[in-house]
Amino acid sequence: MCIRDSGSVVYSSQVKVGQGIFEPFTLGQNYPNPFNPKTSIEIDLLDDSEIEITIYSLDGTEVTKLYKGFLTKGQHKFDFDGEGLPSGIYLFKVETPGFTQTKKMILTK
User: Rounded to whole angstroms, what are the CA distances from 108 to 32, 33, 35, 81, 84?
Assistant: First the structure.
Protein backbone atom coordinates (compact mmCIF):
# COMPACT_ATOMS: atom_id res chain seq x y z
CA MET A 1 0.00 0.00 0.00
CA CYS A 2 1.28 3.46 -0.84
CA ILE A 3 -0.26 6.78 0.25
CA ARG A 4 0.32 9.64 -2.18
CA ASP A 5 0.67 13.34 -1.35
CA SER A 6 -2.88 13.85 -2.58
CA GLY A 7 -4.14 11.47 0.12
CA SER A 8 -5.16 8.78 -2.34
CA VAL A 9 -4.23 5.21 -1.57
CA VAL A 10 -2.72 2.93 -4.21
CA TYR A 11 -2.55 -0.83 -3.68
CA SER A 12 -0.02 -2.95 -5.52
CA SER A 13 -0.76 -6.48 -6.62
CA GLN A 14 0.21 -9.30 -4.29
CA VAL A 15 3.65 -10.75 -4.98
CA LYS A 16 4.70 -14.23 -3.93
CA VAL A 17 8.40 -14.82 -3.40
CA GLY A 18 9.87 -18.30 -3.48
CA GLN A 19 8.28 -21.58 -4.38
CA GLY A 20 6.47 -22.23 -1.12
CA ILE A 21 5.47 -25.68 0.07
CA PHE A 22 4.27 -28.10 -2.60
CA GLU A 23 1.37 -30.20 -1.39
CA PRO A 24 1.05 -33.24 -3.68
CA PHE A 25 -2.52 -33.98 -2.54
CA THR A 26 -5.61 -32.38 -1.07
CA LEU A 27 -7.07 -34.27 1.86
CA GLY A 28 -10.74 -33.82 2.60
CA GLN A 29 -12.34 -34.30 6.01
CA ASN A 30 -13.85 -37.74 6.42
CA TYR A 31 -17.61 -37.88 5.84
CA PRO A 32 -19.73 -38.32 7.80
CA ASN A 33 -17.97 -37.05 10.89
CA PRO A 34 -18.90 -38.06 13.57
CA PHE A 35 -19.56 -41.51 12.12
CA ASN A 36 -21.05 -44.83 13.23
CA PRO A 37 -19.51 -47.17 12.16
CA LYS A 38 -18.60 -46.29 8.54
CA THR A 39 -17.00 -43.20 7.04
CA SER A 40 -15.21 -42.20 3.82
CA ILE A 41 -11.92 -40.39 3.24
CA GLU A 42 -11.34 -38.56 -0.05
CA ILE A 43 -7.95 -37.63 -1.47
CA ASP A 44 -7.24 -35.61 -4.60
CA LEU A 45 -3.74 -36.47 -5.90
CA LEU A 46 -2.11 -33.83 -8.08
CA ASP A 47 0.44 -36.31 -9.49
CA ASP A 48 0.89 -40.08 -9.62
CA SER A 49 2.42 -41.17 -6.32
CA GLU A 50 3.11 -43.85 -3.77
CA ILE A 51 0.70 -43.27 -0.90
CA GLU A 52 -0.04 -44.70 2.50
CA ILE A 53 -3.19 -44.17 4.58
CA THR A 54 -3.10 -45.23 8.22
CA ILE A 55 -5.72 -45.02 10.97
CA TYR A 56 -4.52 -44.43 14.54
CA SER A 57 -6.16 -44.27 17.94
CA LEU A 58 -5.66 -41.02 19.81
CA ASP A 59 -2.82 -42.55 21.86
CA GLY A 60 -0.87 -43.23 18.64
CA THR A 61 -1.57 -46.96 18.33
CA GLU A 62 -2.00 -48.07 14.71
CA VAL A 63 -5.55 -49.37 14.20
CA THR A 64 -5.25 -50.34 10.52
CA LYS A 65 -3.37 -49.63 7.31
CA LEU A 66 -6.22 -48.51 5.08
CA TYR A 67 -4.11 -48.38 1.91
CA LYS A 68 -0.48 -48.69 0.84
CA GLY A 69 0.57 -48.57 -2.78
CA PHE A 70 0.70 -46.56 -5.99
CA LEU A 71 -2.16 -44.32 -7.13
CA THR A 72 -2.60 -42.26 -10.28
CA LYS A 73 -3.45 -38.59 -10.09
CA GLY A 74 -7.08 -37.72 -9.53
CA GLN A 75 -9.72 -38.27 -6.87
CA HIS A 76 -9.74 -41.39 -4.75
CA LYS A 77 -12.18 -42.48 -2.03
CA PHE A 78 -11.46 -44.92 0.79
CA ASP A 79 -14.03 -46.39 3.15
CA PHE A 80 -13.24 -47.07 6.81
CA ASP A 81 -15.37 -49.34 8.99
CA GLY A 82 -15.01 -48.71 12.73
CA GLU A 83 -17.14 -51.74 13.69
CA GLY A 84 -15.61 -53.35 16.77
CA LEU A 85 -13.79 -50.19 17.85
CA PRO A 86 -14.81 -48.18 20.92
CA SER A 87 -16.26 -44.68 20.58
CA GLY A 88 -13.60 -42.00 20.53
CA ILE A 89 -11.35 -39.77 18.49
CA TYR A 90 -9.22 -41.40 15.80
CA LEU A 91 -6.60 -39.97 13.44
CA PHE A 92 -6.12 -40.69 9.76
CA LYS A 93 -2.71 -39.96 8.29
CA VAL A 94 -1.96 -39.76 4.57
CA GLU A 95 1.69 -39.94 3.49
CA THR A 96 3.47 -39.55 0.17
CA PRO A 97 7.27 -39.60 -0.20
CA GLY A 98 7.58 -35.87 0.51
CA PHE A 99 4.44 -34.83 2.38
CA THR A 100 2.26 -35.98 5.29
CA GLN A 101 -1.09 -34.72 6.52
CA THR A 102 -3.17 -35.91 9.49
CA LYS A 103 -6.79 -35.21 10.42
CA LYS A 104 -9.04 -36.38 13.22
CA MET A 105 -12.36 -38.17 13.06
CA ILE A 106 -14.89 -39.09 15.73
CA LEU A 107 -16.51 -42.50 16.12
CA THR A 108 -19.76 -42.38 18.15
CA LYS A 109 -21.80 -45.41 19.06
Answer: 11, 9, 6, 12, 12
